[in-house]
Amino acid sequence: MNPRIDALPTSADVAAAARRLTGVIVRTPLLYCAALSELTGAKVFVKPETLQRTGSFKFRGAYNRLVQIPLADRPAGVVASSSGNHAQGVAAAARLLGIPAIIAMPDDAPALKRERTEAFGAAVVGFDRRTQHGEDIAGALAAERGATLVPPYDDTEVIAGQGTVGLEILDDLSELGLVPQVVAAAAGGGGLVAGIALAAQSRAPGLRVVACEPEGFDDHARSFRSGVRERNVSLVGSFCDALLAPHPGAMTFEITRTLVGEAAVADDAEVSRAVTFAFRELKLVVEPGGAVPLACLLEGRIPIAPGSVVVVVLSGGNVDTETFIRCLTA
Amino acid sequence: MNPRIDALPTSADVAAAARRLTGVIVRTPLLYCAALSELTGAKVFVKPETLQRTGSFKFRGAYNRLVQIPLADRPAGVVASSSGNHAQGVAAAARLLGIPAIIAMPDDAPALKRERTEAFGAAVVGFDRRTQHGEDIAGALAAERGATLVPPYDDTEVIAGQGTVGLEILDDLSELGLVPQVVAAAAGGGGLVAGIALAAQSRAPGLRVVACEPEGFDDHARSFRSGVRERNVSLVGSFCDALLAPHPGAMTFEITRTLVGEAAVADDAEVSRAVTFAFRELKLVVEPGGAVPLACLLEGRIPIAPGSVVVVVLSGGNVDTETFIRCLTA
User: For a disulfide at A149, which of A136, A142, A282, B195, Cβ 3.0-4.6 Å?
Assistant: First the structure.
């Protein structure tokens, strides 16, 4: 179960992932946002991974991992633990590749995420997030069946897959003759920010990748300050269900401590306003966890020089109707 | 006020519009939709003009018209009549070009649309849609001030601008080695379907463009059958506020009678379900009028051969919170 710290992904792994994902993922657009640009004085673009297959960026890493499972190992299946976006990513990739999938999912995960995971044909095993560890359950299930465990972030190929978000951002900006100064993205275990930072390492060396976290789950912020992986005090208490990892990943932190190193925080009320902003101004359905970077930008938590090029990643859109309505009417 | 039937736009006008709009509009993506493809047995893509500047395709035609107003005429301003999407398109284009704008808008237009039109700096003049004609009011305002009238659809440059939606669809599919068999788009006055049909005339001669209308406002369907422009019986009675034109445009019908000729209808309950489908499955905020083609597809109103390439245009996303919640909870 220990991550292979010796096998940290590189920007070459991200490029290889991009080749594997071409024609399978939705090549999500990079959208210039006039409203955000006016508000901030920067050139602001959004990268809506909400429009990705399964409604979040997680499909990228999952498919990049699963497509590399040897044919002989596929019948034994894959196992993952996730509150719902990695779950859907693994389930959808497994179905495309004809691999059986079992997902350990906390009982308090949004109903929509569980329904959609099951709709992709995966078996879902529930657990109580306060007393049980999803990764332990997934590890046991995988060992029992000889199945392949697909970690949500501490995996070379998963991180490389998520990094393709960064490559696409760089490619699209490059066509406009632009280089980004800031990319803000959500951080739970840190796979997305680690992948983006790797993608940008050689192509945009001055880029600031900002890890955006819900209040009370600022483990990246604290870990960047202390230099070691810090734990969150509680595992419950935010509706940003996608971002409630207990601490930064071991592999991801090895990458983010040097290549990211910057974080920002927003509380649930601010995230709720960002979800509403996305509804009104961007016409995009964004789930709370996916709206944290937008909230950080709107609340002025990310220092930005006038005229700089800023990208906000909207990482997922799998939100229950009730939660969405609560945001719109708050 | 009579449309210049002698000046019908051509596919060359659409190509010229595309050049004028490059770098000004959002180049909206063409998104492959796995969920819709599975449901229909076709290869279904959506074209989310919801992500366009101002939240609807109307910015294209408005900007293409306004940017061609001679500098000497600009200080006198522009005038338009619209329930809100053409209004925002004209207001936003006017602001970009430094032209004053006055918009005649019905009193029952969605509050969001009025607010957003005013936020772009336009002056809004309200009127009662049951007793007054917006185009008469706009015409009088324009005459009084020597301002340029910007018709919502019966204008060569407006139609040409909307047609760039079609060009982008053809370009993006062409990159995938595909040619569309069906493009479904909403029809109020018919500017969008006319423009798309013009764009496809030479490049995809077998393409079926389907004009999608709300029940009770099936003036295109009836006009295609009778061969003359038919009126809608009522001007109220659907929440698809963007599509309540009294009859097909004179210019647009000259184009659509030969190049479109096919229509489909959905009622408000079906449109409401389509808005919810877009929320859950596409993660896109679509207004009722913009969801009519999706409703027609979901309800099986558009005959589709298995495996064919189908594009659904989601033409706008300017929906009030209350209306959106009503759709999600219906």
Answer: A142
Tokens of A130: 């306060």
Q: Which residues of B touch A55 (CB under 8 A)?
A: 283
Q: Could you read off the pLDDT of A245-285 as tens digits, one per residue?
A: 889 999 999 999 999 999 999 999 999 999 999 999 999 99
Tokens, residue B60: 């294209």
Angle between helices A191-200 and A250-259 in degrees, nearest 10? 40
The predicted model gives B211-225 an average pLDDT of 97
Helix (H, G, I), strand (E, B) or coil at A244: coil
Q: C-alpha distances in angstroms, B190 versus B26, B78, B275?
A: 22, 22, 21
Two tokens, residue A316: 């997922």
Q: Which pair of tokens denotes residue A186?
A: 């959500």
Residue B328 to residue A329, Cβ atoms within 8 A: no
Of B31, B280, B317, the CB nearest to A283: B317
| pLDDT given at position B204 | 93
Q: Which two tokens stand for residue A58?
A: 């997680």
| Total-model pTM | 0.95
CA distances, B121 to each of A15, A245, B97, B117, B148 (Å): 45, 45, 12, 7, 17
- Per DSSP, B181 falls in state S
On whether the CB atoms of residues A293 and A312 are closer than 8 A, the answer is: yes
Q: Report the chain A residue with the minimal C-alpha distance to residue B49.
A: A283
Tell me the percentage of chain A whose pLDDT exceeds 90. Answer: 89
Characterize A56-92 residue by residue with b for buried, 16 or more Cβ atoms within 10 angstroms of its Cβ, and e for exposed: bbbbbbbbbbbbebeeeebeebbbbbbbbbbbbbbbb
pLDDT in the model for residue B1? 39
Q: Which of A292, A287, A278, A291 is closest to A214 using CA atoms?
A: A292
Q: Predicted confidence band at B5 (pLDDT cuts at 50, 70, 90)?
A: low
Strands (E), B56-100: 78-81
Judging contacts by C-beta atoms under 8 Å, the chain B residues touching residue A31 are 26, 51
Instruction: Quick: pLDDT tens for B256-280.
Output: 999 999 999 999 999 999 999 999 9
The total number of residues shown for chain B amounts to: 330
Report, as an integer, the average pLDDT of A293-311.
97
Residues A26, B31: C-beta atoms closer than 8 Å = yes
